[in-house]
């Protein structure tokens, strides 16, 4: 992706890099995150969580802990995905078309990336352990909708 011109990578946190409510990178992904940071540089890899770094995280305590655990920047912002592009632009100093967004949820991660011209990667859920009920219900609804209404063919 870097050789193809990708400027940076944004990861969702819960069920993308870590188990829900954990700050530690999931053991299956530790090597991949390390290689990503080696390839892009730590400044070009960031986490965009809908918990750490949002108003749900007063003082950025969870964001600080997550940064220490993962070794990459956690973007702070006032609005949750699919809003919050300002923090991405400020951090990466570019528009979304040069960025890759990776996440496990369609209506937050993929919609956010698509709204801002990013290449998006939808990942499978890492674990059902600790996933909250609202997230589970939303995931089921999103999966059903995407299966029922697949993307339109590209115009090109
Ligand atoms: Mg997630």
From TrEMBL:
<dbReference type="InterPro" id="IPR023214">
    <property type="entry name" value="HAD_sf"/>
</dbReference>
<dbReference type="GO" id="GO:0005737">
    <property type="term" value="C:cytoplasm"/>
</dbReference>
<dbReference type="InterPro" id="IPR027706">
    <property type="entry name" value="PGP_Pase"/>
</dbReference>
<dbReference type="InterPro" id="IPR010021">
    <property type="entry name" value="PGPP1/Gep4"/>
</dbReference>
<dbReference type="InterPro" id="IPR036412">
    <property type="entry name" value="HAD-like_sf"/>
</dbReference>
<dbReference type="GO" id="GO:0008962">
    <property type="term" value="F:phosphatidylglycerophosphatase activity"/>
</dbReference>
<dbReference type="Pfam" id="PF09419">
    <property type="entry name" value="PGP_phosphatase"/>
</dbReference>
<protein>
    <submittedName>
        <fullName>Uncharacterized protein</fullName>
    </submittedName>
</protein>
